[in-house]
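Notes from the 1:1 (GR / supervisor)

We went over the backlog. Supervisor wanted to see one worked example end to end before approving the batch request, so GR pasted a single chain during the call. The sequence is below; no edits were made to it. Supervisor asked that the structure be written out right there so they could see what the output format looks like.
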Amino acid sequence: MAGLKIGDKAPDFELTDKSGKTIKLSDLYKDKNVVLYFYPKDNTPGCTAQACEFRDSYQDFIELGAEVIGVSSDNDKSHESFKSKFGLPFILISDKGGAIRKAYGVPATFFILPGRVTFIIDKKGIIQHIFNSQFKSTQHIPVALDVLKKLQ
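Structure output shown during the call:
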């Protein structure tokens, strides 16, 4: 995974969401731990199950002092529809061109399907955990929660 490992500084990024609000990773982790999860595509079975599991556990993440950010290459319109359809309370960002995915070294599965990887980033911007599992989409949530509990 492009050499990123636990203990490395998380690559920063800055994007503008659909409403024109700037989302900068380093601004988020000043106050909170960040669960940055990369997923293949909005409205697909595994990605929907994963997003809904993050939604259902979102209050647990908040109580553990964390923010959840989902990243895919879908456009803002797709993200807004996905969020609305499933009541997703967390940030979804569009990684047009795959620059963030590349910076984090998220691999493609079978060379074509964008990978599913979750990074836990602490308040200093340090990667505390990396979980890579394309086919165990809902396992990302309990793993992330366990890591965040240990960071308390």
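Supervisor's comment: The longest strand covers residues 66-72.
Batch request approved.
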